[in-house]
Amino acid sequence: MRIEILNTGTELLLGHTLNTHGAWLGQELFQLGLRAARQTTVPDGPAIRAALTEILPRADALIVTGGLGPTSDDLTREITAELLGLDLLTDPAALHSLEAFFAIRKRPMAEANLKQALCPAGAEILPNPNGTAPGLYLPPGLDPRFPCAIFLLPGPPREMRPMYHAEVAPRLTTLAGLSAPPNCLTLKFTGIGESDFHDGIDTRLAAIPDLEFGYCAHIGEVDLRLIGSDPAIAAARALVMKRFASMLVSDDGSSLEETVVRLLTIRGMTLATAESCTGGLIANRLTDVPGASAVFTHGFITYANEAKIGLLGVPPEMLIEHGAVSEPIARAMAEGALAAAGTDLAVAVTGIAGPTGGTPEKPVGTAWLALAACNHPTQAWRLFQPRNRHDFKLGISQSALDAVRRHLS
């Protein structure tokens, strides 16, 4: 079944609003056993007509987001009806729902809102309990030229997503004649690049019958997606794990920080962090995970040398001799955090995020990391990641969390 997505809204193309619909809908469709064949984004106005004219002859189903509001630039409903030659009629149930929405909130309903109760002849109203813009479903065959099912959904995610689950997904399942979603396994790896898979593994994966595979690379992480029969997925997993088992973060969709929290919980251990160049990002990632409070106790943000001295007990003379970005300082930070927090583990990072501050001996992108553990020698290692500040911080936080994962594993 060929499904296309059409996102409307000038704000999406100006970059004022992040367009998350395509990614979200793609994931939801795949869970049903369907896939989006193409995603198109157009501004408000006449461009919607051009996009519909192009898409409707080739698609089996079209999901349109946006343009169902009360303002003059919300024209998706009107353009769709005009293109299909359908009259727009006021739907009594939709009108009653609109009036009730404003009555409950004790607000007057503007005359402009009345257009939101209009429904193309032959279409179905999709209720919107989270806003004023009802959705619309136009079944295949309303216009013989376009045997395509059309779903018109509101643009705000808080309205669109519940409507998709309640109204769109069941209809798509019926239209496609689906019985069961495909088998899919995603393996998350860190400390590895796509090229590592291409080197020898790619051709062997391609030789497995009934298997589809693909990669998605992030900073410090690669996701390997396996789709196919159970035997095909099992064979592919065994092949990959034989070479990259130590780099596996999860096979259940868990993020690196979720894996770290889970392993700490299983081991009954606690962790502290000492961060300079990452500014608290490691602690932030950990505390995004429910249950982190049981295993993560202290997060020291020691950006300035005075903080390293005062909070972690780093000797001032050590900073003078070696500089803040150095192996001795990383070790002292980790050991100081371990002592101050009284935890089982402590990880520390110090580096030069740039774009200034580098030297020939310590260029921008240089970082030192250290891991201190009770009854274990402190480990320290140097990284060089010359990226922009955001990506540098993310990459260093990834390496720090992976060091904890490896120790716990």
Structure description:
It contains 15 helices and 17 strands. It is of the alpha/beta class and 409 residues long. A 6-stranded mixed beta sheet has the order 2-1-3-8-7-6, sandwiched between helices. Strand 10 and strand 11 form a beta hairpin. The two termini are 44 Å apart. 39% of the residues are buried.
Write the layout of secondary structure elements.
Elements: E1 3-8, H1 10-14, H2 21-32, E2 36-42, H3 47-55, E3 61-65, H4 76-84, E4 88-90, H5 92-104, E5 118-120, E6 124-126, E7 135-138, E8 149-153, H6 157-176, E9 184-190, H7 194-198, H8 201-206, E10 211-218, E11 221-228, H9 230-244, E12 248-250, H10 256-267, E13 271-275, H11 281-287, E14 296-301, H12 305-312, H13 316-322, H14 327-341, E15 345-351, E16 366-373, E17 376-384, H15 389-408
Parallel strand pairs: 1-2, 1-3, 3-8, 13-14, 13-15
Antiparallel strand pairs: 4-5, 6-7, 7-8, 9-11, 9-12, 10-11, 15-16, 16-17
How do you describe this structure in short?
With 409 residues, the protein is of the alpha/beta class. The protein has 15 helices and 17 strands. A hairpin with a 2-residue loop joins β10 and β11.
List keywords for this structure.
40% helix; 5-stranded mixed sheet; Maf protein; Molybdenum Cofactor Biosythetic Enzyme, Chain A; 409 residues; 6-stranded mixed sheet; alpha/beta; 15 helices; Alpha-Beta Plaits
Oligomer: single chain
- In CATH, the topology of the largest domain is named Molybdenum Cofactor Biosythetic Enzyme, Chain A
Radius of gyration based on Cα positions: 27 Å
Based on Cα principal axes, name the global outline.
Answer: elongated
Named at the architecture level, the CATH assignment of the largest domain is 3-Layer(aba) Sandwich
Sheet with the most strands, sense and barrel status: 6 strands, mixed
